[in-house]
């Protein structure tokens, strides 16, 4: 059996007297999309922030490819191939798509203090990634002129540049049009088909059932369901989220 790319064992997080996440265990396989669902305050974001290195777990262990993983800050998560696409995308509107993809990791040519930014190489590589993603986004276009779907493509292209193993996506289809939702779901499928594991935080049931292999439901900091999408239904997940069903 293949080693899970990520394994959480009894992960908990408290902030003083507030127990945000309690005893959550979870595995994530390469090329798997896991939908993470739950009401506001269920603990989803706190769980994802522990995986992304923003928070240290109060208890429990994380393993990546079978090796214990201890993260003190987000840059360490990125060094291990864990990337997060935030709901606000954290893009610079006044820069081109290519400049956003390479932000902080710009390509240069020349030596030492005489080196200059290699825009041609960055445009070319960004264009190759957008082609891989089958996105209409163009490297030289400015982000401020882009649709929500194109902005998601830029954020996802940034994760592919870093050869991510795990991509954490926070509400990627919120507040965008139906056509753009379809585009973003195709981007998620591409990540999956490339062998990248995806954790998809979403309130949109149709999106989770369209692309996820498994669905995990959290309520009041605890995991109340973890099952294949094919073995569940939107009605069951709604019941679990609201508390009408205790556990699946």
UniProtKB/TrEMBL annotation:
Record keywords: ATP-binding, Nucleotide-binding, Plasmid
A Pfam family hit: ABC_tran
Matching InterPro entries: AAA+_ATPase, ABC_carbohydrate_import_ATPase, ABC_transporter-like_ATP-bd, ABC_transporter-like_CS, P-loop_NTPase
SUPFAM superfamilies linked to this entry: P-loop containing nucleoside triphosphate hydrolases
Residues covered by the ABC transporter domain: 6-245
GO MF terms held by the record: ATP binding; ATP hydrolysis activity
PANTHER family: CARBOHYDRATE TRANSPORT ATP-BINDING PROTEIN MG119-RELATED, SUGAR ABC TRANSPORTER ATP-BINDING PROTEIN
Family membership: Belongs to the ABC transporter superfamily.
Name of this chain's protein: Ferric hydroxamate ABC transporter, ATP-binding protein FhuC
Provenance organism: Sinorhizobium sojae CCBAU 05684
């Amino acid at each position: 059996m293949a080693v899970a790319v990520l394994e959480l064992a009894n992960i908990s997080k408290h902030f003083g007297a507030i127990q945000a996440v309690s005893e959550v265990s979870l595995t994530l396989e390469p090329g798997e999309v896991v939908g993470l669902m739950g009401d506001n305050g269920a603990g989803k974001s706190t769980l994802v922030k522990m995986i992304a290195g923003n928070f240290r777990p109060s208890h429990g262990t994380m393993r990546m490819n079978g090796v214990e993983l201890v993260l003190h800050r987000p840059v360490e998560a990125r060094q291990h191939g864990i990337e997060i696409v935030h709901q606000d995308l954290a893009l610079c509107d006044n820069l081109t798509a290519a400049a956003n993809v390479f932000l902080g990791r710009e390509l240069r040519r020349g030596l030492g203090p005489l080196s200059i930014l290699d825009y041609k190489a960055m445009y070319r590589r960004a264009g190759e990634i957008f082609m891989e993603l089958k996105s209409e986004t163009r490297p030289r276009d400015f982000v401020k002129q882009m649709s929500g779907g194109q902005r998601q493509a830029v954020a996802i292209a940034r994760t592919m540049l870093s050869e991510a193993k795990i991509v954490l996506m926070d509400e990627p289809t919120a507040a965008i049009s139906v056509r753009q939702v379809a585009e973003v779901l195709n981007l998620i499928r591409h990540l999956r088909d490339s062998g990248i594991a995806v954790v998809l935080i979403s309130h949109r049931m149709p999106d989770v059932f369209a692309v996820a292999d498994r669905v995990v439901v959290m309520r009041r900091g605890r995991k109340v369901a973890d099952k294949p999408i094919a073995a569940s239904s939107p009605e069951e997940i709604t019941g679990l989220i609201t508390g009408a069903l205790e556990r699946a």
